Amino acid sequence: MRVVIQENYDNMSKWTANYIAAKIKAHKEDRPFVLGLPTGSSPIGVYNELVRMYKAGEISFKNVVTFNMDEYVGLPKEHDQSYWYFMHYYFFDHVDVPKENINILNGLAEDLEAECANYEAKIASYGGIDLFLGGIGVDGHIAFNEPGTSLASRTGLRKLTRDTRIVNSRFFDNDPEKVPAYALCTGVATVMDAKEVIIEISGHNKARAMAHVVEGAVSQMWTCSCLQMHENAIIACDESACDELKVGTYKYYLDIEKDERL
Ligand code: GLP
Question: Whose CA is nearest to atom 3 of ligand 1?
Fold first, then answer.
């Protein structure tokens, strides 16, 4: 697993956006580039930079198909806290991804199980995900795969932990009860199936999770640690996220990735 440490959030975001853009441009296969996408504050800087690149004529998303990581159950897509709304607000409304290429789980589907099975089938129909961008929760969750979720899990219904509802209550009038209790999300194995995975980790509040993910054992209690088993996984992070790493680990990655430092 690579760990690319940048000085701050902006540089982390720029580095990641450049990396994604380069991959999209280099994609010459006779099928679209399939991009997995997250929500949350961690990827906003990446979306801002990709939008800037698009507006500057540096990149097009016409040949890109997207699959989002997760969506709350019970929120209509027009709700300003739905992940559908978030994605359009920060990204899709500003770039040229064809509308029919955008895939987001429907948390209001009548048959949630079928919705998730169809999502997996649709990903497979495109030949899988080329690059999955993600973030992590303070408890190390990837998508909404909370501690204890099987590392072999597929797209499905998840119950959110009390901790996650408290953390996400900042978007729901600071009331954890207003945060939906359930979400649909891609499984750990769904993310692991992607040819490449990049996870954004920023800020001191993620430092404990970062240490578990990078230095800890592979464990269902820190689901993002699964990335240690992925052939092409990158953690893109800022300095504050490294606060709990061993000095030796931090120095090692700074040195081995020094050419990537912006
Ligand atoms: C939510 C999302 C995750 C995201 C996490 C961290 O729980 N389901 O996909 O990684 O929040 O969000 P943030 O980047 O805002 O810290």
Answer: 143
**How many whole angstroms from its chain centre is CA 256?**
24
For this structure, is 141 an active site residue?
A: yes
How confident is the model at residue 60, as a pLDDT?
97
| pTM to 2 decimal places | 0.96
Q: Is 146 annotated as catalytic?
A: yes
| Residue 29: per-residue pLDDT | 87
Average pLDDT over residues 124-143: 96
Respond yes or no: is residue 139 known to be catalytic: yes
Q: Does CATH number 2.60.130.10 belong to domain 2-255? A: no
Structural domain boundaries of the chain? 2-255
Q: Mean pLDDT throughout 210-228?
A: 97
Centre of ligand 1 to C-alpha 33, Å, is: 24
- Which residues lie below 8 Å from residue 34, measured CB to CB, with a gap of 6+? 64, 65, 66, 67, 123, 126, 127, 128, 129, 130, 131
